[in-house]
Write a structure and sequence with these properties.
Largest sheet: 6 strands, mixed
CATH superfamily of the largest domain: von Willebrand factor, type A domain
Strand order of the largest sheet: 6-5-4-7-8-13
Structural class: alpha/beta
Radius of gyration: 32 Å
CATH class of the largest domain: Alpha Beta
Distance between the termini: 43 Å
Number of helices: 10
Amino acid sequence: MIRFAHTYYLYALLLIPVFIIIFSVMLHWKKKALNRFGDISIISQLIPDVSKGRLVFKFFLIMLAYVFLIVGIANPQIGSKLEKVERKGIDLMIAIDVSNSMLSQDIKPSRLARAKQAVSKLIDNLKGDRIGIIVFAGKAYMQLPITTDYAAAKLFLSTISTDIVPAQGTAIGDAIQLAIGSFDNNNHSKAVIIITDGENHEGNAVEEAKAAAELGIKICTIGMGLPDGAPIPVLNKYGDRIDYKKDKEGKTIITKLDETMLKQIASAGKGVYIRANNTKAGLKKVFNEINEMEKTEFESKMFSDYEDRFQYFIGICLVILILELFIFERKSKWAGKIKLFG
């Protein structure tokens, strides 16, 4: 399998038609300039060593070198072979609250930012487990279907923000229901980690957690926020705070962690509840709890390591450019009788 590490550099190949047009215009201008001095057939006899064919061939070599250079910069890579790998792990779904209350900064730098940092560290510690990501506010959406591609998981995690879900709220029940439906029908050990401040929950989250437990799916909750709560910042497009959210009476809204609800959900889901603070996010204890679950063997197909091949293309580019240096526009005396280029 061949892929390019930096595909965006390949757009530079679109400049080749532009270079060809410029070169054609230059040749036309040169021919037009010679015609001003007289008949072109006579002028050609006065400068017999000048070869148009050589000039065209030199341009062709430069364009060829340019192609190899751009392809080399894009770094073509080859996957050595497709392998079947036996993995042992669990299926884990992370549900992250992206409601506006997660922007509160009682946990630094913010509840949502700390949640994303914690999940990123969790992904770094996964070995053989499959992971998926759900985002929820007023509704729940699948951000990343369950996968063993940890690089993709971290990429999708980085794009999560409060703007990703338009409807406000904290629909924990919908997130649990979506997580249950996203798992494959297999005998793998399964768990859901819900990261939220628990405020303004919608639907019967406790009943959904019980339903998950009956299917053998463990539900763990992590409370993001402090009991005293904090205001919800209003940010501009640059991410700077310009105000705090206020209610209809003009009073600043204080968002507080709803620990009672999250404890009930974890209890119904036969999991654990952990409250995050400014020194720890709580995922370590939850991960240890999940690590004690029975890990199931499953097979996955993957390409083994990709190998860089840019050096060959850069090398060919250099060889072509060196060759181009030894081809002159004027014919040499010793090669005057050889008419390779006309």
